[in-house]
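ugh finaly. both done.
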Amino acid sequence: MKEHDHVIITNNGVGEAVLISFEDYAKYEEYLHRRFIFDELQKSKGKANEPDAEPHDAKELFARLESKSPMDR
């Protein structure tokens, strides 16, 4: 089993940063991304139940997203 060691960098005894393996960092980034998606879906679920909510066609929405560059989003 691989160890998941980390190094804590301090400044006068106060923690400043943590050095972790790239693999652990990638897993953490994936976790944060999934958590963000979940939170956004929860918000959307609440908004979809509002009386003035307007439905959108998924194919049209994805076509609009694909036609824009990442900087336009």
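ok and the 2nd:
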Amino acid sequence: MFQIKIIDSRQYPDKSQQEKLRQHLEQDQIACILTQIKKILGPYSSVSPEDISVEIVDGDISHGTIEGETVKLPLLGHQASIDLAKEKARMLGVDNLPEPQCEKAILTITASKILHEAVHGLLESRPGTRFLTDLEMISGVSDEQAERATLLDEGIAHAVQGLYAKSMEPFGYLGPQISLNDELIVQQRKKLGKKLEPIIKEYFNNSQPLDDRFLSVANQYLIEVQKETASV
């Protein structure tokens, strides 16, 4: 199995932290998951999982982005990451959380975010792509600005992230969680992801490429989510 390439572009690169992240990606079998994602995306992906790379940049781990095939991952330095985890633990009533546990939590969250963004890198949902045109055909709804296709793309990424997310004391579930503080569009993405988890799991288990049946079910979920959040 291939290894995901990691580049540390921060002002003060940390080879030790970079290596620990590489090991954690292997432990969580992220490359294997991406290979399976590629299989189920079928005609909706022309990108190879081997082309996905990670670039660590300065910032905290709250947000990541995908640029082409490169996951741009903001990550604090080792000590700052540990301090952040300790502070989160204190907010949950746990003082002096051991450093190894703090580090494991940070790496687990980081790997999860890499998986989420990598799904975006594999799934092509821009205007003119087959994913968008097939969704238009199934739904009967024009999507010139790719708003619905993008929302479904996000929902699929959240579903994959949720399926492989872990729980860890004292932080609990480390997957996508809906917050009333989230923007409306973020709430829609996470709600859609939760609805999509069972059918994504089904296609994963059968190594079955996404098809018209999937798009039909996903379209119904899109309609439901937009109705559910219309009054939020």
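summary for the 2nd one i guess: The longest helix spans residues 99-122.
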